[in-house]
Every structure is written in structure tokens, then in C-alpha cells.
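Annual report, structural modelling task.

Input specification for the adenosine-5'-triphosphate complex:
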Amino acid sequence: MRLCELSLSGFRNYEELSFEAAPGVNLIVGDNAQGKTNLLEAIVYLGSGKSWRTQKSGELIRFGSDFADLNARVESQDRIQTLRSVIFPGRPRQLWRNGVKKKSAGELSGVLNTVLFCPEDLMVLKAGASARRRLGDSALCQLRPNYDAALAEYNRLLDQKSRILKDRFDHPALLEILPDYNLRLCQVGALLISYRARFYEGLGKAASVYHGQFSGGAEEFRLAYHTVSTVEDPFASVAKLTEDLQNHMESHARAELESGQCLTGPHKDDFDVTLNGLSVKTYGSQGQTRTAAISLKLAQRELARRELGEEPVLLLDDVLSELDPGRQDFVLNQITSGQVFITCCEPGRFTKLGQTIQISKGKIV
Ligand code: ATP
Ligand code: MG
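The model returned the following structure:
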């Protein structure tokens, strides 16, 4: 899967932009605030119909323009395809795939998949568990629509159970339906654990290979998935996992009623990464943490390639700073599979695997 050509009009700080992308590495260099991240945002938008930076479409339209028009020529699914997004202020955007207007972003799926690493992802291994869960969940949802559906159901049930617990004094009668919610939460929760165990195992193995190359063999990367304590084997059958979750829930039933909160279930899952046996969360240096986080993204792309048969385009925003020369060389010159876009501010960087694009004030120079 690769982006062959990108044209933007009225998008962010781009009045007009058009360029042909290299099949390997595209290094986008420029000072701060010149439009490097905006370019990655346009690529993500074309592939998915949304931006990770904003939900307000108006922000994406260049100040003074009436609308933004994004176009891409893409090679995927063994042919050349086109994508177009037109974004209007205050009314729904319009999406086209191969010249045919599409009703939903879901209909674009599989044409231009991307895996993005942005500075906010940097500290995911240091941050609280919810940031890691989000990272894992969003990768898994992309790979497995059934997981996506199960997660949505779980979150809905959890929400409803939370409300029952919160209103337990005002509406005690609602407590009668709590066992039904608990059972379903355990059943769906078991499914989530089953998916996650397999996903994290694959992710950890792939990331470990990348991290080994990245660090020149100096660091051994391991990922461990943690779930509810009564689950002895997250690879057990869904029936067994359901039973394990019920046991945990029963032992916490009283505490849940007393605190009015959902205290048990895979919504508290986490994973931990160690390098040479030391937890990145506690002991990782800036560069190590950054390297491990990038390795996870590379692994996510690898799993997507195995699943979908095509490698998503990798977008690395601002990853080079704080990496030593060897690790920078890995990012610039050793990611040989698939297409990569890398942004950086530092002048003098170049790649042997593709082209360097210099951006200044929303123009290629
Ligand atoms: P950095 O190296 O600091 O990350 P960058 O090159 O990635 O910089 P971008 O995030 O791409 O910078 O943003 C470049 C500029 O785009 C910003 O100065 C911002 O003010 C401008 N910008 C954002 N939205 C719009 C818009 N709708 N219209 C015009 N300019 C915009
Ligand atoms: Mg930027």
C-alpha cells in the first residue's frame, strides 16, 4: 500500500500543494510551524475521513478559504485508486473513492491505511494505564471489527452498571437487575481478554524484533499483558475466562456497592514493557522510552500487514529528537519495508531510502 501522489487545496496552512511521494521513505524537513504535521494529518484524513488532532472540520480549512479539497492517488489492493475529501465549515464533509461518492468513512477502509506515531504517543509507556489501553484498543479495533463491537458493548454495559451503582440510594429497585449486567459484563469482558491476550502476544513478539534492531541488539524488549487477577491463563477458553471474571466480581460485589463504582473487569487492563528486565515505566530513559514506543508502532504495522496482506503507510511525526545517531539511522535508513513519512526539524538529515522534502510556510522548497 502506498501513497503515490498528494494534492491539497485550502487545507490548514496549505493554499495549494501537490507532490509525488517516494515508494520508500519520505523525509519531510522544515522549521517549526511550517506545515509538516499538517501534511501527515492530510494523509490520515484521506485514508480515514478523520483527524486525530480535531473533531472540528472548520479548523482544517485554511483561514480565508471556503473549503478544503484533498486528493490522493494510491496504489493498493493491486491497483491504482483515488481518494478525495472535501471539507466544508459547519456541514458534513464529502468523501470519494475512485470517483464514487461514499456515505461513510467506513467505505474507504483498506485503500489507504496508516499507522501514526505522534509526539503524544511518546510517553505512552510512562503514562497511566488508560493511555496504553487506548493505544492497544485502537490498534485491535482496526484489525478486528468483532473486537470493536465487543468493546463498544462492554463500554455501554459498564456505563449502565456505573449509573445503577451511583443511583443505588435514590433507585434501590434498579439493584435487582445488577446480576444481569454483571453476567453480560463477564461474558463480553472474557471475549475482550481473549482477543487482547493474542494481540499483545503478537505485538510483543514483533516489537521485540524491531527494538532489537533499533538498539543494535543492546536491549531485550518484552511485553507483558496484565488483566484481572483471578484470570490465570488469558489464553483459556472464553467460558473459563467468564468464570474467572465472575469469581473476581463476586469477591468485589460488596466493595462495589459500598463505593458505588465498578471495581472489577478488563476495563482496568494494562500492559508493561521491560528492557533487559527493567520496566520502561519506572526506569526507561527518554531515548529508550521513545525507541520502545516506536517499536510498538512498527509492530502494530507488521500485525496489520499479516492480517490485511498490505502494509499500512507509516507516519512518524517528530521522532528523531532525543535519539542517538545509531537510532536515528535506524529510523531514516533501515525501515526498508513499506512506505514511511517522517517529519523532522533538524537540518542536515537525509535518507538513503527515498526522498527529502523541504517545507516552508506551506510550500515545498
Ligand atoms: P512543528 O515542527 O512545530 O511540529 P509543523 O511544521 O509540524 O511544526 P504544523 O503543525 O504542520 O507545523 O502547523 C503549521 C502551521 O499551520 C501552524 O503555524 C498553524 O498556525 C497553521 N495552521 C493550522 N491550521 C490552520 C488553518 N486552518 N489555516 C491556516 N493556518 C493554519
Ligand atoms: Mg509538527
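The CA atoms of residues 164 and 364 lie 57 Å apart.
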